[in-house]
Amino acid sequence: MTEPAIRACSGFRWQGVEHRPYKEEGSAPFHAISRQVLFEEPALGCELRYFEMDSGGYSTLERHEHMHGVMIFRGHGHCLLGTTVRAVQPGDLVTIPAWTWHQFRATAGEPFGFLCMVNHQRDRPQLPTAAEQAELRRVPEVAAFLDGR
Ligand code: MN
After folding, report:
1. Predicted confidence band of residue 21 (pLDDT cuts 50, 70, 90)
2. Where are the domains of the chain?
3. Among 56, 47, 59, which Cα is nearest to 22's?
4. Known catalytic residue: 46?
5. 19 has a pLDDT exceeding 70
6. C-alpha 115 to ligand 1 mean position (Å)
7. Centre of ligand 1 from the C-alpha of residue 102, in Å
8. What is the 3 state secondary structure string of the chain?
């Protein structure tokens, strides 16, 4: 059972909340990103996590059956959703539907953080095959995003 009330610390940390690696190293491509799980009570049915990237960091390009509800919390970045790339800033909301390719990238020069709501019980993410990556890259904005340009 989580503590009923947890204080925020400076630097986008929370008292007693472990600052973890984003994923197991080598499990999927990602860069310079951390994970803090803020709420994970099974009875809630969902979890709220805070992900933060350093300048130039990015999350894994993936898709899955479960959805995400995302609120940008800190800094600026870009979000790939399907074949659309959007600039995002604090307060923006992003709904990631089932089976939609998605990835977040921090804008160079500052950390970028977002809150992500997700089902407690969820399927494992899929990574794109070479053919699926090639298909995504047919959209010039998507290719530029994937190359960090
Ligand atoms: Mn995901």
Report:
1. confident
2. 20-146
3. 59
4. no
5. yes
6. 12
7. 7
8. CCCCCCCEECCCEECCCCCEECCCCCCCCCEEEEEEEEECCHHHCEEEEEEEEEEEEECCCEECCCCEEEEEEECCEEEEECCEEEEECCCCEEEECCCCCEEEEECCCCCEEEEEEEECCCCCCECCCHHHHHHHCCCHHHHHHHCCC
**Ligand 1 centroid to residue 120 C-alpha, Å:** 13
Return the pLDDT at 100. Answer: 98
The pLDDT score that the predictor gives to residue 139 is 97
State the catalytic residue, choosing from 9, 46, 79, 116.
116
What's the pTM? 0.93
Q: How far is the CA of 68 from the centre of ligand 1 (A)?
A: 7
Mean pLDDT of the chain: 93
In CATH terms, 20-146 corresponds, of 3.30.200.20, 3.40.50.1820, 2.60.120.10, 2.30.30.30, to 2.60.120.10
C-alpha 32 – ligand 1 centre gap (Å): 16
Least confident of 12-16, 97-101, 130-134: 12-16
